Amino acid sequence: MDATTRQVNEAARAAAGAPVQDFGLLIKAATRLEQRIDAALRRECGISHTMLEVLIRLCRQPGEEVSQRHLADDLTLTSSGTTRLIDRMEEAGLVRRVPSPVDRRSILVEPTDQGRAVFLRAASVHTRVVERYFVQPVPPGDYARFTGALREINGALRGTGG
Prior knowledge:
This protein is mainly alpha-helical. About 70% of the residues lie in helices and about 5% in strands.
């Protein structure tokens, strides 16, 4: 067996291994959960899941000043993607842009009264879907270990540059 064939066989074995299969299962579950949340929010509240994530960030601390740049970082969107999202939300009457009182180069985003009302409805829908598809399927005795493991994975990923 030559070196190339050996490499191909090793790669195939690795790809068929439990860690790769388990990771694929995690990605599929997360993607399906995201799709369920997004569909319910669009149907019941007229917003996307990403819009709810913006409203969560803006409404969790009333009076907190949030810049578009910080929203982009929190949402892991590009600057232009965040600008387009905020444009759509502003057109829908959910948020408004205001100049920063301390940094004239910075634009802050704040929720409107309508945005706060939509947030309250959407948070309820989001909670219902997460309970049904994320919490209920996991046996109660395993839930704390499961979420603890997710926190460990997230911490490991945040602590490394690549």
